């Protein structure tokens, strides 16, 4: 999968799902952010088995082939995104779960793991809404 996204929108999404990610957990897979391409949206999830947060973000899909999702270390991804100055960030994920992040002259490679290892996320009824 290959897509680009607005940096400020991605930063908000990552900061939101990181609230459900614990740094000290017995399951190392829960230290990761779940990223999955769903149509023209990227789904971000954080989970600590008690609290789960899902954030959907519209992206510009450049190539929907290859791996559809990945688990990336939350602290690493958050640190990288916070340091970027570019308005648009491009993600390119290959079949070996290597995620390339590009912004202007900056180019990072992060190795992730398969999102199949992530705990099952509960289905939420979409007709129920409330505002705080």
Explain the overall architecture.
The protein has 132 residues and is an alpha+beta fold. It is built from 2 helices and 9 strands. The protein has helices at 7-17, 74-83, and strands at 2-6, 32-38, 41-47, 52-58, 60-63, 69-73, 88-93, 98-103, 106-111. The strands form 2 sheets. A 5-stranded antiparallel β-sheet has the order 5-1-7-8-9. A hairpin with a 4-residue loop joins strand 7 and strand 8 (98-103). The chain is globular, with a radius of gyration of 14 Å. The termini are far apart. The model has no long low-confidence stretch (mean pLDDT 89).
Briefly characterize the structure:
It contains two helices and nine strands; from the N terminus they run βαβββββαβββ.
For the termini, the CA-CA separation is 35 Å
Q: In total, how many beta strands? A: 9
* Portion in helices: 10-25%
Q: Please state the CA-atom Rg, rounded to the nearest Å.
A: 14 Å
Descriptive terms for the model:
132 residues; 4-stranded antiparallel β-sheet; globular; 2 helices; 16% helix; 5-stranded antiparallel β-sheet; alpha+beta
